[in-house]
Specification:
Radius of gyration: 23 Å
Number of strands: 8
Bound molecules: copper (II) ion
Strand order of the largest sheet: 2-8-7-4-5
Helix content: 10-25%
CATH topology: Immunoglobulin-like
Structural class: alpha/beta
Mean pLDDT: 89
Strand content: 25-35%
Length: 158
């Protein structure tokens, strides 16, 4: 015969299946990965990112610090795969927009997933994002005339 004490214990285990520990590991998994990505500062005015690609894991929250050691202003946009030319053309068209600078030279487009504002020489900007779908996501700077040279690939892997 089962003792009432044991019954009580098993009932308690049933009610409280150690949720504290589970929550802890959940939190750790969702902690953002901190990455630095930089514009190329040497030689000055190169209009390039320092690295041609950046690899991240799908579903992993990212905290990207975009640094600008260059003498020019730059921004950083993450686009939908294959959208570089389309967004680049929209950026070029902004040259006639008197509000362009106020908009950090970021055109209006559904192909732009994430963007920083315009980053001054010596400054930095943090971008937080999570991308769930694996693929090659273009990273470009849309300061007038930059995007053709200033592009990299964000490789989102499974
Ligand atoms: Cu640029």
């Amino acid at each position: 015969m089962k003792s009432p004490f044991l019954t009580l214990i098993s009932f308690a285990i049933f009610l409280f299946p150690a949720p504290a520990e589970e929550k802890k590991s959940d939190k750790a998994a969702k902690q953002a990965r901190k990455i630095e990505f930089s514009a190329q500062g040497t030689p000055p005015g190169t209009m390039k990112f320092a690295k041609p690609e950046l690899k991240i894991k799908a579903g992993q929250p990212i905290e990207l610090t975009f640094k600008n050691p260059d003498v020019l202003q730059h921004n950083l946009l993450i686009l939908k795969p294959g959208a570089t030319a389309k967004v680049g053309a929209l950026a070029d068209a902004m040259l006639t927009d008197p509000e362009a600078m106020k908009k950090s030279y970021i055109p209006k487009s559904e192909d732009i997933l994430y963007s920083t504002k315009l980053v001054n020489p010596g400054a930095k900007e943090v971008l937080k994002f999570t991308i769930d779908k694996p693929g090659d996501y273009p990273i470009i700077c849309t300061f007038p005339g930059h995007w053709r040279l200033m592009s990299a690939v964000l490789k989102v892997e499974k």
